[in-house]
Automatic annotation (TrEMBL):
Binds to actin and affects the structure of the cytoskeleton. At high concentrations, profilin prevents the polymerization of actin, whereas it enhances it at low concentrations. By binding to PIP2, it inhibits the formation of IP3 and DG. The keyword Cytoplasm applies. Keywords: Actin-binding, Cytoplasm, Cytoskeleton. GO terms for cellular component: cell cortex; cytoskeleton. This is Profilin. It is found in: Cytoplasm, Cytoskeleton. It comes from the Eukaryota. One of its GO terms (molecular function) is actin monomer binding. It comes from Cavenderia fasciculata (Slime mold).
Length: 143
C-alpha cells in the first residue's frame, strides 16, 4: 500500500488522503527525498511550501506562462527561488530543469502546479516520479 499524507481517510485506491496542502509538501514530496517543494495555484498564489522555498510573484507568472508556451521554457530556462535551471524538457504538463548536480521538476494539474527541487542525493528519474505521481493523484481527485 502507498501511504500518501498523514490523514486517516483512504480513497478507492487505498491511498491515504492528506488533510492539508502542507502535508502534501511535507510527506509526499520532502518525505520522498526532494530537497525543497511548493504547490502553487494554476493561476498563481502559494498553497504550501517547504521552509525557505518561495517563488517570487514574477517567478510564478513565468512558470505559468511556460506551461502555456513550453517552447519559451526551453529558450529562457526556469527561475525558481532565485535559482536558474537549464530546461531539459518542457510540455503543457511537465517542465524539467537541471542546475549543477540537482534539478527541478514542475508538473501542472487542473488547479495547481507542483514544484519539486532535488539535489545529488536523489536521481532525476526518481524525483520526476515523485512529482508526477502526486500530480496524477491530484488530477484523479479533481485538482
Amino acid at each position: 500500500m502507498i501511504h500518501w499524507g498523514t490523514g486517516t481517510q483512504k480513497d478507492s485506491q487505498n491511498i491515504r488522503v492528506s488533510k492539508s496542502w502542507q502535508s502534501y509538501v511535507d510527506t509526499n514530496l520532502l518525505g520522498a527525498g526532494l530537497k525543497q517543494a511548493t504547490i502553487i495555484g494554476a493561476a498563481g498564489g502559494s498553497w504550501a511550501a517547504s521552509a525557505g522555498f518561495k517563488l517570487a510573484p514574477e517567478e510564478e507568472k513565468a512558470l505559468i506562462a511556460n506551461f502555456a508556451n513550453p517552447a519559451n521554457a526551453s529558450a529562457t530556462g526556469i527561475l525558481a527561488n532565485k535559482v536558474k535551471y537549464l530546461t531539459l524538457k518542457a510540455d503543457p504538463r511537465s517542465i524539467y530543469g537541471k542546475q549543477g548536480a540537482g534539478g527541478i521538476v514542475c508538473v501542472k494539474t487542473v488547479q495547481a502546479i507542483i514544484v519539486g527541487v532535488y539535489d545529488q542525493t536523489l536521481q532525476p528519474g526518481a524525483a520526476a516520479t515523485v512529482v508526477e505521481k502526486l500530480a496524477d493523484y491530484l488530477i484523479d481527485s479533481g485538482f
